[in-house]
Amino acid sequence: MPFQTLTQLKALLPDLSRSERHLRDALLYVLETQGSLSRARLAYSVGCELELPEHRRICLAAGIEFFHVASLLLDDLPCMDDADTRRGRMCAHRRFGESSAILAALALINRAYALLFESFVGLEHASLREANHLADDCLGLAGIVNGQALDLNFQDGSRDADAVVRVALLKTGALFRLCLVLPAIVGNASRYEKMHLSRLADVWGVAYQVADDLKDVLQGALVTGKNVQQDETLGRPNLAVLLGVEKATGELGRLLGEADGIVRALSDSEADRWVGIALFQKEFLTKVEPLLAKQEVA
């Protein structure tokens, strides 16, 4: 992986020397905050498996990570989740103001699209159309944007388990599809492989959201690095609140079992390929072990 921290992504931003001070400081601040870079690492790993040129891998990984960071900036705003902390630090809008946080998110989204388009240069027409369609599908009204709207207005809907899963698919699952399927399209993966990667993205997306829901109920802010126990107060979708911790934990275990099956199917389809996918699944399992044990963390 060419970058292990968000700070290293600063090199992929345009020159900030002429940027307005508050905007520049907000951008640098969010890219100095320690994150897992899990989505960037995942996209880069898929690119490696398919032997994409290094420049394409970097552009895909960094672009997707910029989309993710931008979504967090917007999620934390008072009109959204009204959060105070993110990744253990004061939210950007609390430190630099809401306008600077919004503009920083827009700058990251713009740069992310530019990096994605750069990774598409030279693709055959059919692959280019497929890649553009996937990006539009995941990032627009069929994906993250609509998922966020459903999340914010969850109280006005059915508020059942299916509705919670739908939000997870549109928000978290959509970004995982970018990580897994977009490099697969650029790298000319088979239809069979793209089908399994798309399904894995959905399963991981819902599993990640269920894990996050359980953290909101079971863990403290010192562990999660953000505001906790807010979903019930704000009326947001949370499977652990809706079904209870026991059933939500069981659903998380079921999803992880399904993901294991998909990873095995991918590995069986091509010897010595998809090692990075298997490692990511192993890391995910390690992270959620305390949740599966229903451990309460202060």
Walkthrough of the structure:
This protein is mainly alpha-helical and 298 residues long. The chain has two domains: 1-121, Farnesyl Diphosphate Synthase, CATH 1.10.600; 124-298, Farnesyl Diphosphate Synthase (Orthogonal Bundle), CATH 1.10.600.10. The protein is 70% helix and 1% strand. It has a two-stranded antiparallel sheet. The protein is globular, with a radius of gyration of 19 Å. It starts with 20 loop residues before the first helix and ends in a 6-residue tail after the last helix. The mean pLDDT is 88.
What is the count of structural domains? 2
Radius of gyration: 19 Å
CATH class of the largest domain: Mainly Alpha
Strands, count? 2
Please summarize the sheet with the most strands.
2 strands, antiparallel
Which consecutive residue ranges, at least 5 long each, have pLDDT under 50?
Answer: none
What proportion of the residues form beta strands (DSSP E)? under 5%
Overall body shape: globular
- Name of the CATH superfamily of the largest domain: Farnesyl Diphosphate Synthase
CATH architecture of the largest domain: Orthogonal Bundle
Q: What's the N-to-C terminus distance?
A: 33 Å
| CATH fold label of the largest domain | Farnesyl Diphosphate Synthase
